[in-house]
Amino acid sequence: MAIIRLIFGLVVFFFLLFVFLQNAEERVNLHFLQYSFTNLPLFWVIFFSFLAGSLFVVILAIYQEIRFRFKIFKKNIEIKNLRREVNELRKMLTEETSFETQSHLETQNQEKKEKEEE
Question: Residue 50: CB partners within 8 Å, gap ≥ 6?
Fold first, then answer.
C-alpha cells in the first residue's frame, strides 16, 4: 500500500510540475476576502489552491479517523461487557448443573444405602 501511495504522490507531483511549467509566464490578479494580490504567477495560485485542498482533506481524514477510533473503543467496551456476562452465565450454568448432579448422586447413594439396609 505504501508503494501505491508513493507512486500516486509522484504522479501528482509531476502533474503539478507540468502544470506549473506550462503556466510560469501567466500573471493573474487575485481577490481573496478583503485582500487583493496583483500580478501573481498563475502557478502560485494553482499551488496554494492545491495545498489548501490537501490541508482540508487531511483535516477531514483526521476527523473521520478520530470518530472511527472512538466507535471502535465503544464497541470494544461493549464486547468486553458482553464477554463478562457470558462468562457469568456459564459459571451460573455450571454451578446449577454441578448442584443438580450432586443432588442426583446423593439421591442414588441414599437409595443404594436403603436397599443395602433391607
Answer: 16
- Reduce the secondary structure of 38-78 to three states and give it as a string: EEEEHHHHHHHHHHHHHHHHHHHHHHHHHHHHHHHHHHHHH
Whether 25 contacts 43, CB under 8 Å: no
Cell of 84: 463478562
**pLDDT: is 72 or 109 the higher one?**
72
Instruction: Evaluate if pTM is beyond 0.90.
Output: no
DSSP 26: -
Whether 49 contacts 16, CB under 8 Å: no
